[in-house]
Amino acid sequence: MSIYSIQDEDFIAEMAVVCPKCQAMAAVFGGQAAATAAENEAQLRFFCVSCNFALRYKNTPKFKAHSKAGRGKDGVVEANLVCDPFFGFDLWYCTDTAYGLLWAYNRDHLRAIQYEIEQLRLAQHQNTQGGTALPLWAQNPKNSDYLIQVLEKLVLK
Ligand SMILES: [Zn+2]
Question: What mean pLDDT comes out for the span 55-81?
Answer without folding.
Answer: 60
